[in-house]
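Reviewer 2 asked us to include a model.

Predict the structure of this chain.
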Amino acid sequence: MIVSRRGFFGWAAGSALPLTFSNTLRAQEDGRRPVFKVKVDMVVLSFTVTDSRNHYINGLKPVDFRIYEDGILQKLNTFAEGAKAPVEVAEDGKTRPLLETEEAPTGPLALDRPDAFTGTNVFILFDTSNFMYRGFVYAEDAIADFVRGLDRADSVAMYTFSRNLSRGALLTRDHNDAINGLRRSVAGDDTALYNALLLTLRDAAKVPGRKVVIVFSNGPDNASMVAPDDVRAVAEDEGIAIYTISTNEVNKDAISSSALRRIAQRTGGKAYWARTWQKQVEAFESIREDLGNSYTITYYPAPNPNEGFRKIAVEIVSDPGKKLRVHTRPGYRPTRTL
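Predicted model (structure tokens):
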């Protein structure tokens, strides 16, 4: 029996089995081999461009980029820089504003507005387990300062976790509401980091536009039911960048540090180790700069027979010397259905 990764993790997190499951059993009982189809919706690809000194490169246009998926050139659908409103990209590379009549997808956490793709949807996942007792108040202050400094176009959701996940503030553009949700957090017990991260990713996947998850944690996990690489794969497939800030020492727990680094790098985010309040503030400032200096492109994938991992490559046409660097996720897996 084969069940898609997303279907499996939707079940593991408490939802019903996917509809494809019964169809698969029925096909096996009839002696037939189930036939899977690949479904790929619009791909949202966010990335930053830097020079050799790690300075952000701004002001690039759609005509400066070529996006390849498994070596196949893709036709850009929309383009945005930072928190600016996205523009539609025509066949000739020219742009025009998106129609204000276009409706944003709706859902429990979706923002039902015409400019749903403007700004970044930021999901903050704050570790309130017993590992965080000592620096709890300082961590709250660092997170609150980060939220205050976000662009007004950015939306924020504030989640906390120890053994269980608590949604302190659902996705909102009212940054004060998110901070109030943070201040209501209480200290917990054991740490189920990867369980909480999976649930957060499921919420984020329902929202249109660019999405990032910021994990603020001590690092070690002693209560999760899922593995870090499996959660990372879900984020990679959904196009959700994960930034991690650990208050632990990078060399104190090599296993946890390696898992956090791998999750961040493979999803297009970054990993930070910040034991002191000052380092935590610096990490949040770095993330805020990343969000403000990013590019976001959407496209509908061209026909591709590959049902497995599809590699994404971003080429900068205006950089023939290949001196600029692009930081993004390496690819994704399309959804398989019956």
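The longest strand covers residues 43-50. The chain is about 30% helix and 25% strand. We have added this to the supplementary material.
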